Amino acid sequence: MKELEARIKEDGRVLGADILKVDSFLNHQIDPKLMQAMGAEFARLFKDQGITKVITVEASGIAPAVMAGLSLDVPVVFARKSKSRILSDDAYTADVYSYTKQSTNQIRIDKRFLSADDHVLLIDDFLANGQALLGMKALADDAGATIIGAGIVIEKSFQPGRQAAIEAGLTNIHSLAKIAAFENGQVVFEEAD
Fold it and tell me: What's this model's pTM, rounded to 2 decimal places?
């Protein structure tokens, strides 16, 4: 998606050898028009595949997932990273390690919102090591839901996430922007899906 790639080039900041900071438009401050365009693109990529729900993990995946859900005209469910007193204990859970935060979270979806009748699209902001995507897959598998595919906003293809997802059985993966490398503090793109 050329609009996303241009925004990454303009506002993204490369930190070290493997981190891209996109907090000015994706995961702190959000550009609603860009999110809307990404949601429409995810809907185009996965149209006519019988999707009944979009699943993501809080918090950075919520904006693109909501716009995908809006474009697909289906509900969006996000996996929570923390348990509160008002959350049901009757939930699907999976442990997910965050490389950027250097911690493990137990993500959870209330069983009322995910069932074997669902055909789900998984949406994630980044695909790097694949842990969030695999966690969402585990939740959907536990529910008996059918996973139609995965939509990724930004994939760092030089990291093992896609391969881990494929080995776990996720093959219908579409990334809107694919990064081949970071060179001299700059993003090098490869052809997106």
Answer: 0.94
